[in-house]
Predict the structure of HTTM domain-containing protein.
Amino acid sequence: MCDGPVISDLIRIIIYAYLLFDCFMGKITAPPIGDTPLQAHVLLQKTNPLFWSINNKFSRYFLFLHRYEYLKIIIRIAKISWICCIVGLGGFITRSITGISVFILSTSIIGIGKIGVRHRWHVPTWTLLALIFTKFKTNSVDHLITTYINSRYNAEPNQIIFDSGFSSKFIQCISLYTLFAAGISKLRNSGIQWILPGTLTFYLSDPTLDNFTVMSKFRKDLRRLILQYPLIIIMISGSSLIFELISIFALFFPSIRLIIVIFAWAFHFGILLLLSPNYLPQCVCYLMIIDIPCHTKIYQTNMNINYVDIFVIVTAIMIIVGYLLSLIYCYEGWPFTSVPMYALDRRQFTHDYLIDENQLNYLGNELHLLNGISVGCNDQFSFGETWIRITKNDGNMNIIKQICFHMCPFEYAFRHSLLSALIRSIVISKHEMDIFILNIFDILAADDLQFITKNEFISVEIHFKDGWKTYSTSKRIKEH
């Protein structure tokens, strides 16, 4: 568990600095308010509880922190300790404050604006926790204080685990697991169909990808070019699957870790260009995987392992076992994940509409529920910009964006709640969608919004091949 490389000051500075930079860039990378732990208080404040998708018990233990003031205090503390970690001040104390506060912030907003597990910040959150069990070395303020001011100053523990490769090995396990589990998810969802051009073609032709403004024209032209050549699509889908499945071997063979990391960087950059998910924070954390020859591993000494070392190692092993169980049982709930992928077989679907009621029921039975919330929504089809809409009165205009402006800053979070209600209405009772749409109506008709009046109504409509059909309407509910 401790055969990873000892983390150098350079790697420590790069990881802490970039992850903090990513937080400050949150409003740009995920407008309008950002999706990183340091935007937790704003995300909570602007998202109506109706659209919270907290589906696992662990996250519910943190509900008492769902107060703007509480999270804002934690964020201020996290920023200060984070900067201290970059410059190497405070040792174990500041590393612990940073890691634990980010973990709390991430857990507090699981299901609020994000669904199930926040995959973009999944590995980074664990990385900040793992870095607790490293030490600030010569390139740090702590070292300067010890050398020039007070030789007795020491902010680092004496346990052997802090001088070992434990932290890097732990992140190796977590990050390589996410790659491997993604490959398993592809096989689970589509099997050999994933390699056929039709599957990836569906995802690359998603019209919502045109909404991203960064290098929009270049990315659009690149997708259009690739879609013209089915052989290229087969090569992309096949090579990505093979890479994900073999990446796990880097755990056991240090000689291939650098190669795997380089391929992982290229892999995630390709995803960013072609689809949209931004895993650059995770890419930076891959630096902890690399076994740099000039750095020594755990020192071969006779230092005794004490109860602190044993406790930390046993806890890490339990976490890894939890990941393996989540992969086996397809569990998706923080802090674990089975890494569901854009990999469902969609060759019989179109982005524009559903063929008929049978295809709607198929969709409802395919995307499973956990405590009433869909856990199968990591699928571009579920975003549903063209096949499901909400209208006002007898109009044809989709008002989802206006609704989101008032009560849910991230549209895909609103759509996840909408889709969860739709699935519940299919597999449980039609009244589930009626309840959902009536709750939305009550919020929009409230005195502080007055988006609609009590005499108006809103409707959920689904686009089938033969046209739009009303699925649920507040008008009908009121009449009954």
About this structure: Residues 293-302 have pLDDT under 50 and may be disordered. The chain has two domains: 9-328, 357-479.
